[in-house]
Fold:
Amino acid sequence: MHATTIMNLITVSLAGLAAAAPAPAPAPITEAEVAAPLVARDSETQCMKRYGVFFDAFIVRGKRFHADVLGKDGISLRNQLKGCGAVTNWGFEYNKDGWDWKATFNQPLGQARCVGHAIQSVGGQNVQCQ
Structure:
């Protein structure tokens, strides 16, 4: 074979390899995307607080939350609330008072803002407990 023929074969072979190269891998998922909760854009939340002597009593009601984020019997919400302090007198009911669910609990005094953040972390909208 002549050198020109060999060079043509190499060029054709390399061009075929380039055309058959796999597509680049998708960008990796960032830590922020993994940590971000599934927020139900149309979720509704109501949070009421009653002052006590040693603790605040809360009633939180919600509609249209992602069940896998809220957790069975609100366990994910309860776990998030533990970051605000001790959760006592926990109660959770489905289909209550015209809402999809209702949670009742006590928290140490002054944790209303933290309770609002806990609700957001399980898919609720920004809510202020009053």
In short: The CA atoms of residues 21 and 37 lie 37 Å apart. Residues 33-121 form a domain with the Ribosomal Protein S8; Chain: A, domain 1 fold (CATH 3.30.1370).
